[in-house]
Each structure stands twice: as C-alpha cells, then as structure tokens.
Amino acid sequence: MTQAPSAEDQFDEEASRRLESIYLTPDVVEQRAQVMALLQAQPGQRALDIGCGPGLTTQSLAQAVGDNGQVLGVDIAAPMLMIARQRCASLPQVRFELCDVNALPCADASMDIALASQVYEYVETIDAALVELARVIRPGGRAVLVDTDWESAVWASLDDTRMRRVLETWNEHIPHPQLPRTLKRRMEAAGFSSVTVTVVPLLNSVYDRQTYSIGMMDMIGAFVTGRNGLSAYDISAWKADAAAIGTEYGYFFSLSRYVFVGERQPNH
Ligand SMILES: C[S@@+](CC[C@H](N)C(=O)[O-])C[C@H]1O[C@@H](n2cnc3c(N)ncnc32)[C@H](O)[C@@H]1O
User: Fold this and answer.
1) Domains defined for the chain, CATH in brackets
2) 11 lines ligand 1 (CB under 6 A)
3) Pairing relation of β-strands 46-50 and 70-75?
4) Does the CB atom of residue 69 touch ligand 1 within 6 A?
5) What is the pLDDT of residues 64-76, one digit of tens each?
C-alpha cells in the first residue's frame, strides 16, 4: 500500500468546497445531529472542534454551548479554515486556529469537551495525538471521536469486482482506514475511561445527487483515478453504473460511522 497523502494536500480549496457541499446533504445533517446528541454539550462549556473542516460541527457546537460558552476550531488545512471562518463569522463565542492535532494551541485541562469527526483516521501519529487530546481536556471532561471503516460499506453495483477495486484503493487516502477497530483501546491507553461505541449509519436508498454517497463519488473518483490501474474510463463507468442501477434495480448504499465517547480520567 502506498503512503496516504497529507491532509493539507488532500484539502485544497476545491476539495474543501466539495466536502462542504457533501456535508450539507440531508443525510449528513441528520448524522451530525445524532453525533451532537451523543456529545451532550452544555451551555457555558469550553469546547474544542478538532479538524473542524468547513465549520459545520463548530457551528453546531457554538449553538449548544451558547453565548456564554467558547468554541475553538482547529484544522491543518487553511482552505477549510477560510470556509469555517466565513460560516461562523456572526458567532462571537467561536475562534479558529491553524494547527496540527499533535500540537493543540490549548493549555492543559482547559477544555470541557472535544469533538473530532472524521479526523484521527487521517493522523499518522494517532497514539501521540490522542495523548495530546487528553492533555487539553479537564478531568471528567468528554471527547467524542467519529471515524469510519469503509469495509462497512454496502454499495450495490452492476460490477462488484470494480466496486471492490475502487473501495480498496480509496482506503489509501488515509493512514488508518480501519481505525474504529482499535480506537477504544487507543483512547483508553491515552487516558480516557468509560469509552462507549455507537454506530450511526448513513443510508441512501435512492439515486439522488443530494446524498452523501453520490456526492462522495466525485471525491473518491478524483482520488482513485490513476491508482492501482484504475483509469478515468473505469471511474466514468463506475459512476454510470450507480446511475443505471438506480434506474433499473434500485439504488442502495449504507456506511457505518462509529462514534466513541470517552471521559477524561483524573490522574492518568
Ligand atoms: C473529513 S474532514 C472532517 C471535517 C469536520 N470534522 C466535519 O466532520 O465536518 C477531515 C478534516 O480533518 C483535518 N485534519 C486532518 N489531519 C489533521 C491534522 N493532523 N491536524 C489538524 N487537522 C487535520 C482536515 O484538514 C479536514 O478538515
């Protein structure tokens, strides 16, 4: 397997805008609401949004902690932060900083809660980054981490062999494509206790551009083209296949998001 490209390289301005539009589809909006319900942010809390991307999660956190709370959004990709700053410009409780998750710009135990949605799977030095996360959360505070394993995808296709090749190649976009399988143990080792895991499914049963999976076809297609022998022609055929199956048999896509909630242990 080749080395995954860095997050800065993956999230240029075009990719950041593309991801923003995918994360505004109704199915992802619903998934975000379910994650926020698990986070249980309270008015007045200090919240950290790690790998905040286009600021959709930051905006949700700001609403939850209210005017008396504080939210810090951090990300390594400048184009993402530009979009996030625009989105949250009218929210005085929100600020943003450009940084790597391995060096958070926060004092020890300065945060009540932290959210990292679809972020740690991008981080090569995952265990050190989780220790850094634990450093900034106060004892008794909570971290909510959301990650995906694309092997949980059920995606109807007229050509299952090509679908498998595409998804196996897509796994190369991150260093930890199977992170949910080990994340609970890793969180515990970093200083979190009472770690719970909840599955939040994404389900698309119609072929519709306003869904996560159809939006992701452009993102996945752009990444896998030219890798592992997948040509532009293969990817066009893969996309046409999804449209055709939608018309002829009925479209079907399902993917599991795994939500880990951990409490910062005192005296770790
Ligand atoms: C898939 S996006 C998720 C965005 C956002 N959390 C959401 O759910 O809407 C992943 C984000 O993590 C950021 N990221 C990846 N590795 C990072 C790192 N080492 N430090 C800071 N941010 C990182 C990327 O730049 C990107 O904005």
Assistant:
1) 7-264 (3.40.50.150)
2) yes
3) parallel
4) no
5) 999 999 999 999 9
Q: How far apart are CA 28 and CA 4, in angstroms?
A: 25
């190649």: which residue's tokens?
169
Burial 68-107 (b: 16+ CB within 10 A, else e): ebbbbbbbbbebbbebbeebbeebebbebeebbbeebebe
User: Which among 76, 81, 200, 257 is the best mutation to test ligand 1's pocket, defined by most ligand atoms within 8 Å of the CB?
Assistant: 76
Residue 1 has pLDDT above 60, yes or no: no
CA distance 264 to 140: 5
pTM above 0.90, yes or no: yes
